[in-house]
Amino acid sequence: MQTIRVNSLTGRMINSLVERTVLTTPRMILVYVGILLSISWATSLAAAIGGENQAFGFQIYAAVSLVLNLVSFFTVRERIRLKREKTRH
Length: 89
Prior knowledge:
The protein is an all-alpha fold. The protein has three helices and no strands. It has helices at 3-13, 17-50, 54-75.
């Protein structure tokens, strides 16, 4: 959801392709580490939350995930002010 907004900011902040790569590479590695951890811990976390009712645990897990993603989506803002170019007539 918020990946497009975050990825578009890198091009606005840095003009150098090398510096963009240096900035983006660790971020993308950590994104995939987070995805791997959330997938591998989902079943055990749902069992811990729901106890005997694992379906209820997954419902709570999904609701919390949805809320966190929506908060992230709606709070990421582009705060860079564009410089207005003077036009020649």
